[in-house]
Amino acid sequence: MKKMFSAWVKDKRTKELVRIDSECINKISFISDLRSNGYMVNPDMVKESEVFEWIMKNTNADKVEWKYINRIPSENESVSDIIWKGINKTTEKMNKNFYNKYGYNI
């Protein structure tokens, strides 16, 4: 089943920032299509269209928000809740990788 995706991308020739909307099977294939058509893509700036619109209308569209908001928050959940959950998950992953690399058991 195809989904609608939206992305902020940069044209490699003109360096112009452009919004692209398209229907694709998944995020990876959408990013691949964009790159093959001459766009520079930051995967954090590619979202399902509903989430993309929600970020644009309800946040400051900071880099942190683009990185960690991957769904529309529920009514009892704030943007900062989602961001902190994402940061904690990233920190846990970094700690685990560090401990595994240097032979420590968690």
Write out key terms for the chains shown.
alpha+beta, 3-stranded antiparallel sheet, 2 domains, globular, 46% helix, 3 strands, 4 helices, 106 residues
Structure description:
- With 106 residues, the chain is an alpha+beta fold.
- It folds into 2 domains: 1-59, no CATH class; 73-106.
- It contains 4 helices and 3 strands; from the N terminus they run ββαβααα.
- The protein has a 3-stranded antiparallel sheet.
- Strand 1 (3-11) and strand 2 form a beta hairpin.
- The protein is globular, with a radius of gyration of 16 Å.
- The protein starts with a strand and ends in a 5-residue tail after the last helix.
- The model has no long low-confidence stretch (mean pLDDT 91).
How is the topology of this model organized?
Elements: E1 3-11, E2 17-24, H1 27-36, E3 39-48, H2 49-58, H3 63-68, H4 79-101
Antiparallel strand pairs: 1-2, 1-3
Short description:
With 106 residues, this protein is α+β, with helices and mostly antiparallel strands. The chain has helices at 27-36, 49-58, 63-68, 79-101; strands at residues 3-11, 17-24, 39-48.
